[in-house]
Amino acid sequence: MEFSYQPSYLSLYIGLGSNLGKSILYLKNAKKRLCSLRFLIFVKESKIYWTEPQEKLNQPWFANQVLKFYVPAHIDPKNLLKFTSKIEQEMGRVRKEKYGPRTIDIDILIYGNKILNDSKLFLPHPKITKRAFVLIPLQEIEPNIKLFDQPIVFYLNQLDYKLLGKKIWQKNY
Q1: Which among 33, 107, 149, 160 is annotated as catalytic?
Q2: Is 93 tagged catalytic?
Q3: Lower CB count within 10 Å: N or C terminus of the chain?
Q4: CATH number reported for the structural domain that contains residue 82 in this entry
């Protein structure tokens, strides 16, 4: 009898954002680089949404998107963070000011049902329930997902936002 190891997989949701240069090309390039990571299995992607800036208002609008992958359960989320940070750096991300303009932002939103409060990584993402630009594309690709035992619509109903086509306006949270 031959034994073959079959890893169990977790659902992984990653948020992408860009508001400098050719934002859509940055999102596509980030997706391509994430898909090249051998341990990630691409599942689906949301549409790209144009979003009013949050926190720091005086900057260009953002292109935002959410991607779903499967990741083997044994992969440590902190290791994935190292890969996503390296991709950001290779794509020209410079961290000059918090919430400032950027070529690419890659956020690990949800990593299976893992909860993590580390100095460098929080899971689920600490602002996930306050950001329409994350909740709307997440709901698009995973309409029945729950966050903290609540459906996404529960959190959307608490936000002051407007969705028109692919544009999202949200009052600062």
Answers
A1: 107
A2: yes
A3: N
A4: 3.30.70.560
